[in-house]
């Protein structure tokens, strides 16, 4: 028997809403979902705060492909205004341009180095929660992580090393007047 004794605003406090980024900003990025928690109610308006961000299942499934390594990392970071955030990062190895092999798997040591680099980028520690959310929306932290991995590409071509590798090989002798067909 609680008729008339409960206040409706108390029932809304602590309620978590899940809203698409497309609904919040009128853009076409519908795969980002934001969780907002109701902190206070003023009249007919709910005052919300950031509670979490996630990608939709179809976006996650479209990113996962065969013939590549998926690298996952998570890190706990405290913002300047005292919020403790747990950030999850999912990255994938990618093919080089003109790569012949179908697969682009990462070796175990490379995966560890990439995971370490992901954990090194702690941009969220130096900013408050509002700025952190604004950095997550255009994926600028993800682009910074991608720039940090440029060192994992193959080293620069050195003609001397190529000659060292080919010194031990035997020269192929062709019959007189024979030229291989041009393809």
UniProtKB/TrEMBL annotation:
Reading the lineage from the top rank, the first entry is Eukaryota
Q: Which GO terms describe its biological process?
A: translation
Task: Please give the InterPro entries that the UniProt record associates with this protein.
Answer: Ribosomal_eS1 (IPR001593)
Which keywords annotate this record? Answer: Cytoplasm, Ribonucleoprotein, Ribosomal protein
Q: Which GO terms describe its cellular component?
A: ribonucleoprotein complex; ribosome
A GO MF term: structural constituent of ribosome
Spell out the SMART domains in the cross-references.
Ribosomal_S3Ae (SM01397)
- Pfam families, sorted: Ribosomal_S3Ae (PF01015)
UniProt name for this protein? Ribosomal protein S3A
Origin organism is Anolis carolinensis (Green anole)
